Amino acid sequence: MRFIKIALLVGLVYLGYLVFSTGRDINESFDYGSRAIPLLNAVSSDWRLETLKEQIDPIGFGKNAELYQKMLLRSAHLGAFRKCTDLSVGTPTELEVEGAKAIVGDCSFENGLAYVAIIFLEIKGETKVVSLIIRPIAG
Questions:
Q1: With left for phi above 0 and alpha for psi between -120 and 50, is residue 62 left, alpha or beta?
Q2: CATH for the stretch 2-137
């Protein structure tokens, strides 16, 4: 059941329907933000599905390879990750997945900007990335 909820969450985030309540803890924001940077560096280094699969826990990657491949193809022109500004950390409200956190914001890449959403989930006492969405911003 938890896998189905995660798959649904990935789909909702992919479609851009991530709604969350904002976290107020500065340490929490820093912790999730510091985890986002290596993830975005790795993925944008080659924009390959295999690289993304290494970064996302299997419970989140699951059967979403086709969605992720489409995202990577649409985003590859962005080039290497540079930085994110005004990231917000909160709790996804669409699904009742205990322990889920989301970090969202606009990030700059070598060749453009993108909306980024990363979903974290507590799995066996460890915080894992279960979803990554990168949606280029036209401009």
A1: left
A2: 3.10.450.540
More reliable by pLDDT, 100 or 10: 100
Sorted by sequence, the CB contacts under 8 Å of residue 55 that are 6+ apart come out as 39, 42, 43, 129, 132
Residues in the chain: 139
> Of 30, 4, 11, 47, which is closest to residue 119 (Cα–Cα)?
11
pTM above threshold 0.70: yes
Residue 133 CA to residue 67 CA, distance in Å, equals 10
Tokens of 51: 């690289």
Beta strands in the chain (DSSP E): 20-22, 81-92, 101-109, 112-123, 126-137
Q: What is the pLDDT of residue 77?
A: 97
- The burial of 78, by beta-carbon neighbours within 10 Å (0-12 exposed, 13-18 middle, 19 or more buried), is given as buried
Antiparallel, parallel or unpaired: β 101-109 and 81-92: antiparallel
- CA atoms of 89 and 103, how far apart (whole Å): 4
Q: What is the CA radius of gyration of the chain?
A: 14
Instruction: Kindly state the helix (H) or strand (E) to which residue 70 belongs, with its residue range.
Output: helix 65-75
